[in-house]
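Q: What would this chain look like folded?
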Amino acid sequence: MSSEQGSATLEGTELDLEDAVMGPTGRPQRDFPEPAPLSSHGPARVIAMVNQKGGVGKTTSTINLAAALAEFGRRVLVVDFDPQGALSAGLGINPHELDLTVYNVLMDRKVDIRDAIHKTGVENLDLLPANIDLSAAEVQLVNEVAREQVLDRALKKVEDDYDVVLIDCQPSLGLLTVNALTAAHGVIIPLICEFFALRAVALLVETIDKVQDRLNPRLQVDGVLATMYDARTLHSREVISRLVEAFDDKVFETVIKRSIKFADATVAAEPITSYAGNHIGADAYRNLAKELISRGGAP
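A: My prediction, written as structure tokens:
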């Protein structure tokens, strides 16, 4: 084997590919460094978790990535931006019993966003909840001036309180998702390892490009996150291969494997990092948090 084939340079570190353990994305597996503690907090970097296809692991990834970032001392706000309220329920808050939600923050300027934010059972992690009321916002916002910037205006009031804001978007590319993209600095695209999911990504990337061009020039894709991966199936491996072909190094090296433990943690209304802290799923989201920080996607 030639030296060109036998080694590769990755961020200044020469790796011997003969000895390297290859990860699911076909790149040598790396141990990302433990994030350094922060000496101060804010302003927050806002990240939208977006995919118009449902069932791809958006909410699970939002909860668990947020909890992993919080474990590393980051102050995190998660915004439930889906009328189904799954993120709120997944963190132990019954969305149907709330007087104030993200809907009130969007539609009534007299409502202070801080009054709608809830502490969660996880240290450093707060929640701005949602319920079915949010479905009305899509219709009501149509007549608003600067309707795409309503969420951005609301989040500006608390940006200095947090290091990271994660927005869990609904499975659609409507006005609510455009609001999330307009408020965001970055986008993470969770993508289930199935071919049908791949087909939907082109439309999503087109929407991101339009928002970047017309509303939010700072917006960038932080990464594509492969979820529900099963190394035993050729199908999963082929989908990852296609993803890397299309997005190259935008695909996170961290891959989330399929596991029933995620469903168990959801039923317990806890992140997997606290429900089953030693499980490989918990380690995967900690690794994702470290990778995101080392890529510059979070402080």
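The two ends are 40 Å apart (CA to CA).
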